[in-house]
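Let's study my pick:
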Amino acid sequence: MRLGESGLIEVVSPYDAVTQAQLRAVRPPGRWLGRKRCWEFPLRAAGALQACLGRRFALDPELEQWLAWLQQPLPPLPPHQVLVEAAATTEPLPDGRRLFAHQRAAVRWLLARRGAVLADAMGLGKTLTALMAARTLARLSDCRIVVLAPVGLHAHWRREAAALQLHLEVHSWSRLPAALPPAGTVLLADEAHYAQSLAARRTQAFLRLARHPRLRAIWLLTGTPMKNGRPAQLFPLLAAIGHPLAEDQRRYEELFCQGHWREQGGRRIWQAQGASRLEELRRLTRPLLLHRRKQDCLDLPPKQRRLVAAELTPSEARGFRHRLQGVIDDYRRRAAQGRVRRDAEALAVLTALRRIGSDYKLSLAHRLVTACLAEGEPVVVFTGFVATATLLAAQLQGGLGEGALGDGAPGEPAGAVLLTGRVPVGWRQERVEAFQAGRSPLLIATYGTGGLGFTLHRARHVVLIERPWTPGDAEQAEDRCHRIGMTAPLTCHWLQLGVADQLVDGLIDSKAERIALLLENRQRQLRRQALPAMVRELIDGWS
């Protein structure tokens, strides 16, 4: 018997009818993993396995240590009322700040749960809320606080911890710790949707930590617990917090993911990427998943979205069609040669449509940003493409270098900040602070860099040149600016060029409906949109 990658017990044995029958009778039940040629059981089955298999099976040393810890659990925590009093949520923080009412309520909610998902909307102060709750457990049980967060957010976590006079151990999602200390740990997982794929090594390593016998509490922080509108993405988070729904993955997928077998290439393949019974899923997850919207907690200035249509001149339209037809012809040529999959043409064409369209929206973005800056209103621009961000910055600044700050000519921006994945992690916060401090009126960012973790509430306008595939990313980018500290309304401009953007925006709406149904219990009829079919119809019409 050994400890698996995700913290479950794996039993490896040559085929023996008696042993197989014994393993099938173990409760709680396990499952056979054909790919790994072993049985997999939850830790709660350790006693039954040892009684069943006796001394016939050797124990891996790491599993032996885990089982020893299970026999010697950590001392119990004080009652919830004692924890809440120790949290002192109504007292001023060491740096003089006070928690908002919704943060105080969330601290009490977390302290009542050893595993939970804090899924408040972006900008409601989840970091400080989680640290206040973790500080309470650390003080009363002398345990450590371990934070998992994207590298770009480490400085933010350390600043908030310093404000509470806390010591943190911060790790990135790309380098998770192999184990936790024996004395006990409170594990805080920021941007927990990084662990939404069970097939990913990162998710397996995360679940191993979440199942560690020396874990005091695990609290997941994410504004998008079901980022792409698929309940399958929620399952790893439920498994991490020990929700009963995660005890049987196949049953969960049958109920909420439209799980079914289908034939493909002469083989039966299990499909579980749909969405169903979302109202029931919401009811069952509600005790361990807290989601609140900004309008329910704060009196923020309003956020308004505007669709801005991009029109092409006849010559631009011919150029656009020529570039797209070249992509289609090239893809079909490579498909005929067997170099790419024939059934992926729709996705390839849609990606090309978005990339080409991004180029053709630059002139509109330039005019829109220039007009806003002329009114003295700070602007944040988001795009999915580094090349688009770089080119727009050059056009607006007359070639000023990436991320540089300068004094522009009258009527021109006094300097733009460029925030893309090419900017070293250590420099990113400095560039954000330059925008926030007013040394630059313009910040141009990619979704993957600027749309994660930073506070940009100085902005009065947000321009989305195109939208990412998932509604969570689009919402998160906007909410970098629509958050605590803003003093005026925010206008979000969605540039839209033709069918490609309409398809993506329609897809975002469709996914957002699923998410709202799970998190907000909105009663509505889901609109099913088959994106590949829509793109295929577009290609056929184009050709």
